[in-house]
């Protein structure tokens, strides 16, 4: 028979385990309550079927019905409505339709992607939409999407004026590749980071008809990588703020699940100007932004993939360009990629440039609770 001491050890172990689980639950509960208090209420139009924009467009190649089915099911569970734009096979594009530039060096996938995005931009201009969200058919999002967008809306209404002040103060200027990451040796990077970052406001005092404000060209909501703009010509003492932070955001993946390094605490989302941003899986444009994009990338020049060209343009690095556009994003992104493995519908690589899950990633990259990765649970009436 087991000894009394053995029984006591088992009871003590069980009590310790229960206590540990209780502590973990309390910590998670506290984090989510803090998250709810910090996030603004979902109002001012963001709770509508177009997420606060005038329209949502999704690009889908007609031959990828698998992705169309998956994206439609995900948007239905989110309560969003989308308008479909056909993807383009580059072989159908007349040679005379290309802008100036060395487009012959580009892949067929990149050429088709470029034309599909230009078709969406043209539709936005034709319909005179004030704002529109553009999704690629492998976009994914967290089940707390509307709360995330409400927070992004506050950032989008706050950042443009902050960035203009920083520009005037000479703290931020158009960066070049050679300058990036090489601040003066007498500047403490961590001190500079702290002084350059303000908390995300919980409310916005100025009235605005638009949930995201009206002083931006692009809201780069979904990407596969971006960088914080470098600080230039300044000291930690007189740095002018140029970014916003949201602490204790449980929709931010833990550091061990992301490859990006950040000077900020875990569970922190940073809103900032775009810099070296890649992938156009989800982005919003204003009417003014759409017209600038159509001229710059649909008429004036074409010599690289659309996302690379858009990134350079947002960074102010495009040759002979006009005024630098106002392009805003967040780190991490709000939207992520969904690449099912090869056992699921939609498995395999991207149709654009051969990037993608390739049977490796089966959930939304950069997301805590992926909607597309959780469709089976949602269909069965379960919570994510």
Structural features, described:
This protein has one domain. 33% of the residues lie in helices and 12% in strands. Strand 1, helix 2 and strand 2 form a beta-alpha-beta unit. Helix 3 packs across helix 6. It is of the alpha/beta class. The radius of gyration is 23 Å and the shape is globular. A nine-stranded mixed beta sheet has the order 2-1-3-9-6-10-8-7-5, with helices on both faces. Strands 4-11 form a two-stranded antiparallel ribbon. It has eight helices and eleven strands.
**Alpha-carbon Rg, integer:** 23 Å
H/I helix tally: 8
Main beta-sheet annotation: 9 strands, mixed
Shape: globular
Instruction: Give the class from helix and strand content and strand pairing.
Output: alpha/beta
What average pLDDT do the residues reach? 81
Domain module count: 1
DSSP strand content: 5-15%
Distance between the termini: 46 Å
Strand order of the largest sheet: 2-1-3-9-6-10-8-7-5
Would you identify the regions where 5 or more consecutive residues have pLDDT less than 50?
22-39, 171-185, 353-363
Question: What's the helix-strand series?
Answer: HEHEHEEHHEEEEEHHEEH
- How many beta-strand segments? 11
Binned, the helix content reads 25-40%
Quick synopsis:
It is globular, with a radius of gyration of 23 Å. The chain is 33% helix and 12% strand. The protein is α/β, with parallel strands linked by helices and 384 residues long.
């Amino acid at each position: 028979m087991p000894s009394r001491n053995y029984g006591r050890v088992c009871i003590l172990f069980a009590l310790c385990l229960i206590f540990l689980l209780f502590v973990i639950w309390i910590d998670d509960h506290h984090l989510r309550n803090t998250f709810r208090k910090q996030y603004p209420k979902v109002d001012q139009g963001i709770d509508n079927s177009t997420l606060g924009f005038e329209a949502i467009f999704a690009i889908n190649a007609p031959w990828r019905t698998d992705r169309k089915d998956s994206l439609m099911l995900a948007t239905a569970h989110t309560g969003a409505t989308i308008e479909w734009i056909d993807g383009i096979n580059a072989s159908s594009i007349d040679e005379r339709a290309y802008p100036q530039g060395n487009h012959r060096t580009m892949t067929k996938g990149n050429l088709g992607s470029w034309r599909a995005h230009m078709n969406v931009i043209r539709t936005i201009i034709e319909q005179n939409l004030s704002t529109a969200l553009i999704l690629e058919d492998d976009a994914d999002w967290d089940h707390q999407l509307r709360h995330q967008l409400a927070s992004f809306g506050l950032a989008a209404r706050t950042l443009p004026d902050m960035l203009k002040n920083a520009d005037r103060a000479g703290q931020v200027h158009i960066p070049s590749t050679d300058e990036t990451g090489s601040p003066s040796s007498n500047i403490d990077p961590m001190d500079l980071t702290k002084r350059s970052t303000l908390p995300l406001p919980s409310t916005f005092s100025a009235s605005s008809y638009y949930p995201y404000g009206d002083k931006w060209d692009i809201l780069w909501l979904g990407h596969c990588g971006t960088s914080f703009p470098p600080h230039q010509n300044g000291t930690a003492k007189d740095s002018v703020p140029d970014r916003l932070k949201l602490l204790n955001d449980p929709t931010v993946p833990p550091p061990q699940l992301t490859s990006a390094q950040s000077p900020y605490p875990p569970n922190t989302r940073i809103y900032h100007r775009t810099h070296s941003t890649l992938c156009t899986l989800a982005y919003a444009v204003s009417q003014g932004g759409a017209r600038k994009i159509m001229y710059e990338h649909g008429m004036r020049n074409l010599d690289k993939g659309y996302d690379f060209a858009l990134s350079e343009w947002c960074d102010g690095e495009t040759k002979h360009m006009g005024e630098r556009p106002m392009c805003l994003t967040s780190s991490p992104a709000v939207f992520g990629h969904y690449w099912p493995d090869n056992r699921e519908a939609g498995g395999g690589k991207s149709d654009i440039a051969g990037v993608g899950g390739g049977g490796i990633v089966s959930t939304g990259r950069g997301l805590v609770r992926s909607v597309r990765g959780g469709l089976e649970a949602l269909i069965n009436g379960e919570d994510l």
